[in-house]
Amino acid sequence: MLKNLTNTLLLFSFAVFCPLSAADPSIEASTPQVDTSESTADAEGIAFFESKIRPVLIARCYGCHSADADEIEGGLLLDTREGIRRGGDVGPAVVPRDLHGSLLLESIRYESLEMPPDEQLDKSVIDDFTKWISMGAPDPRDGKSMTAPKANIDLEKGRQHWAYVPVVTPDVPSPDDAGGTANWCRSDIDRFILSGLHQADLQPVGDAGPMQLLRRIYYDLNGLPPTPDQISTFQSAYRNNADAAIESVIDELLASREFGERWGRHWLDLARYAESNGGASNYLVPLAPRYRDYVISAFEHDKPYDKFVREQLAGDLLPAGSDIERNEQLIATAFLSLGLKDMTIRDQHRFRMSIAQEQIDVFGRAFLGQTFACAECHDHKFDPISTEDYYALAGIFYSSQPLVGIQDKHTGYVFELATLAGHEAMFKGDNYAEFRHLQTKKRNSYSRLRSKKHELLNKAGLSKASQKEQSQYLSSNPAIDHLAKQLEEATAKMDDFYQRFAEEIPRSLIAIRDIEMPTDVAVHLRGEASDLGEIAPRGFPKVLVNDATPEINRDQSGRLELANWIASQDNALTARVMVNRIWLHLFGAGLVDSPDNFGTTGQPPSNPALLDHLAGRFVAHKWSVKSMIREIMLSHVYSLDSNHNDHAYQRDPANRLHWRMNRRRLDSDSLLDSVQLVSGKLQRGPPPERLAIFAQEDQRLKSFNISGWRKPTQNRRTVYQPLFRSFVPADWSVFDFPDPELLRGQRDTSTVPTQALYFMNSPYIVEHSKNMAKLLMDEAKSSDASHLATQAYLRVLTRYPTQTEFEQCREFLTDFVADDQQSSREQAFAAFCQTLFASAEFRYVY
Length: 846
What we know:
Strand order of the largest sheet: 1-4
Radius of gyration: 29 Å
Number of helices: 36
Oligomer: single chain
Shape: globular
Number of strands: 8
Strand content: under 5%
Helix content: 40-55%
Distance between the termini: 39 Å
């Protein structure tokens, strides 16, 4: 009989895995390398404040609550960080991370005071303030806030900022030969790293072991652990020629579909990818997965990054040699179309400008590492970007129309779908109107039927009767029969529409296109659409313009010139930003610690010469992401161990100089995918195209049976799972899956008790632990503890168990298997497998 597994599971996990932490003080010391740096989180929060919060404060609050107001109402100043937190006569306006104690939130919700008094803020704006306070109310404002635009931005001084200076290939350093360290270098990357270490009087730690390195390579390139067969193959090759074995496995993984899935997911974080629109009206976007698959394919087939950039910004304006190429380029432009659209904005101009604002923010941070959105209502407070620059960019996106297949119910603004090359246009606004009409008719029929049922059951005193009794009573009622037939008729009409729509969908896609008459937009003073200044001709931020910058074609939106400008080798930012992202995903931290912000509020590079060296190599190798990854992974610095060193830690606690490899917690994707792989349940490759999503009864996500809808793809990798704005699955969120409403170049990495509890109690982990136990016992056709332990450790931790661990495993299984029943053995071994999943060693890459 199986004894108290829960308590013993805890004891066993503590006995086996806690010594790993206790024996190695570097685990505690390495916390700065495991968690996302505070500077990165601050940069993200400040960007959110500048784009979402400050414009509202200036436009709707500063008139009565700033130093420039004629009379300061209620003693409340909202134009400084100190003022908004100190509050006024009735208490603090904002208390970071305290929604109940922040009176500002109470006021804009009209729960006590009603502010602004003239008209309540839109729900989406209130939601932004709620999110901002929950983030800790990041606020860069010191002293008196500037309500008027700055004058005379010094462009020449601005161009001296390190990120704007043209990339110049630096000389490769020649580290001195002290201690024979020069022989340590395998590539020029190592020479730059070693030079930086020597300047700080540091030495690199030793190398990672072969199994440790293999696990690192697999997770970095495809987000999954190696199988026992792959481990065995690598070990044999490593014994013959270690360098060749490492090179071979890197090449093999770079060529795999899984590489595209892993690195495509990194890009989808930047593209704020989701399959719903977001906001108060959270409509589904049924064709979004085609963009996801485009991204995965681009990384799998090593599409040159400059081409990747051009296609996402202006694929509809690029020449195409075939219908296949045309369709691929159109699908790529979904990058600009998939963002949040606030359907509660009733004014069409404001609505279109809100879309342009979101697009400016995303393209600027994703491709250039620039927070352009901060200049919407005032000149950028920190970077040499003016409001004129902002609205010059805004005109480009204002002149572009998203095509996503949904409609603004307030303004009638219709988002059509684009049409695949070689087909006639099918999905237009009238199709959408028909769908909404039929959907409303069916929902009303259902509501009438449900209300009548409740009415009759209450009158008959059967509201708490059994289902069988209620059905027998209702089946003989003519009113119910009549309403049921109405519902049946409405359902049949909906089914017919779904069938017709399903036939049209394959001919359609999400994309973007120029409007018929591209136009410039006026500067919105203080960000207000009702207070317009001078027209800003479409163009690019002046501080980044050089002799190679193209002129805007006034007959088009300007997206083509924007794409060519960004993807040019003459643009100082593009290559730097991308190679920094590659470095980040291989080392856990970028050479620039703020990957989405290369402006003056971001972090300077830890090794500027190495960053420029990599940027130059990236362009020289025709913008090949795979070549860049391969070159970095074959360097010596990549193969370092993650061991602690007191001297190095004292001098460089954040490991910015790379004296060792950072220890990294696996992200949610890798954790959940690995559990499925090890249990034998993971289905490789993409699922069939999920057209049925549009056939749900109600497009508002609150009405969906989300968990039920996930079932068709539940055994696929997480990158293929449905992802909706405002609904991130709890088992993803606990491991810091990013909010899909926001661009995120570097995921947060928290370490909280709920993560350990998840591995102890989650039905997902329990189920897959059982699957793994059964799989291994069936394969082995034996319950021998040593054999089972070996297979479990190889699959979960990519290593062999120690002798002590063998003995503990045998003792654990013997203790709980009181007889020879197969079920008893499987339960015991499932508990053992769960302890491996629950270990820190599984959750981290060393």
